[in-house]
Structure prediction request, 92 residues.
Amino acid sequence: MFALVLISLFQLDSRKLVGTDISQAAILLTSTSLGHLGLGTVNWSLVIPICLGSIPGIVLGAKLCQIVPQGLLRFGTYIILELVSWKLVFPV
Prediction:
């Protein structure tokens, strides 16, 4: 939802949007991991794949942002956010 606000209100460039989302995700992952580490409730079977999967995702996303036109990236972002929103509202 944060990405949708950035696109809609600030007309943020798709390249900056990807960087902003990655930064936000890294901060959230770090803070929640530290919180669970302090409580002793870390689920390492979730944390490790998320950390390992984010690195190729970051590299691939950065490369695609350089190649794909901005209009297509913006449209793709809208579609993905719309699908995720519908999934949250109408769970199966």
The chain has four helices and no strands. The two ends are 21 Å apart (CA to CA). The CA atoms of residues 4 and 77 lie 8 Å apart.
